[in-house]
Amino acid sequence: MNMIDPQKLPRHIAIIMDGNGRWAKSHAMGRILGHRKGAESVRVTVRTCRRIGIEVLTLYAFSMENWLRPAEEIRALMKLLKEYLDMEEDEMMEQNIRLMAVGKLDLLDKNVLEKLQYTMEKTSKNVKMVLNLALSYGGREEIAMAARDILTDGLAGKIKPDEIDQQLIQRYLYTRELPDPDLLIRTGGEWRISNFLLFQMAYTEFYFTKTLWPDFREEELLEAIAQFQKRERRFGRTSEQLI
Ligand code: IPE
Ligand code: IPE
Ligand code: MG
User: Fold this and answer.
1) What is the pTM of this model?
2) Which among 22, 75, 92, 152 is placed 20 to 30 Å from 34, CA to CA?
């Protein structure tokens, strides 16, 4: 904890929680038990981020592409999500955490969607941290949706072509209310972003680790933040210009 400068915290941390399947395999278990174990890392991560004062934590829990997985695994993930929301509802209220979700939510199972909407509504006045779940989420899909909505508003005369700029596009994304991620963490050893927050991560700092998600605990989260704090974010300028 004393590695971290409380004045230089990332406002928004996004995490690609990868490696549950490989964790399960290495423990001679089925993939679904790996996801179950991964849910414990979610609890630890949410608590730690809340405690140290992170404003927004976005967790990539299910991608658009994950719909291509075996039906049994999808069912188990949906069940786990519902269980997570049931278990954490009180904690979110106590900890003053607001739940949000980004993605093509209408594809989710009805009972999961209802629980999600209920919890988002119930926590909507909470202000200490946003826990943002990326569910049925795809970055390209999000950009396509934004383009559709912009054209719809354009045809209705609400916007003109020359008003379309970066800020306007931002306002049509799922994440319109949130700052861009400052830090992306990907566990599980892959060096890719798998269609996550494509528009929003233009200047995000990346931290990739081989640690599998079920093994990712507070210590490594703090290590990732400490590394982030050592980076120089130049946003295109020179080092000298930053002083
Ligand atoms: C990440 O773990 C969880 C989800 C994608 C839902 P994986 O299930 O992708 O685990 P690996 O990559 O197979 O180890
Ligand atoms: C990314 O993990 C999606 C989530 C963590 C929810 P995947 O395991 O689905 O990513 P790829 O397909 O290996 O890139
Ligand atoms: Mg994976």
Assistant:
1) 0.98
2) 92
